[in-house]
Amino acid sequence: MSMHKPTLNIHSEIEHLIKYFAYLNDKKQYKELTNLFTAYATYARPSQPNELIIGHADILDSFNNRPQKITQHIVGNILLDQQADDLILAESQILLFSGNNSQALEMFVVGGFKDKIVYRNHQWRFQERLGFVNFMKKL
């Protein structure tokens, strides 16, 4: 499969978007995280890949209404395929460590996201963010 590489500037912007999502998730800044999506975006968290969440309000609710644990996401292996001037397909790998307030690790997950990222109003935003899990270990 041949991938169409974006310019270095676009690559940098998309990589920042993907990593910023993880940062905001770990910081529990869900309103700002939701703004990384287009208004009618589709999201599926890695642990529930078949449950599609559509639109800003429902995406925000899904983050606010889940169990609040301490999390640390590590993002890597970001691959980008530019389909058009305003469309990029991306895949990234995620390591997730989560636990409780006593700094005890309770679970780790290896998975990632397949993204459809669009350029709207002078910004790159997630149009579709579909998560997947490859391995999960509860301790």
Describe this structure in words.
The chain has helices at residues 8-26, 30-34, 56-64, and strands spanning 37-44, 53-54, 70-84, 87-99, 105-120, 123-138. With 139 residues, the chain is α+β, with helices and mostly antiparallel strands. The chain has a single domain, classed as Nuclear Transport Factor 2, Chain: A (Roll), CATH 3.10.450.50. A six-stranded mixed beta sheet has the order 2-1-6-5-4-3, with helices on one face. It is globular. 17% of the residues are buried.
List the helices and strands and how they pair.
Blueprint: H1 8-26, H2 30-34, E1 37-44, E2 53-54, H3 56-64, E3 70-84, E4 87-99, E5 105-120, E6 123-138
Parallel strand pairs: 1-6
Antiparallel strand pairs: 1-2, 3-4, 4-5, 5-6
Q: Can you give the helix content as a percent range?
A: 10-25%
Uncertain residue ranges: none
CATH topology: Nuclear Transport Factor 2, Chain: A
Query: Which sheet architecture does the biggest sheet show?
Result: 6 strands, mixed
Helix tally?
3
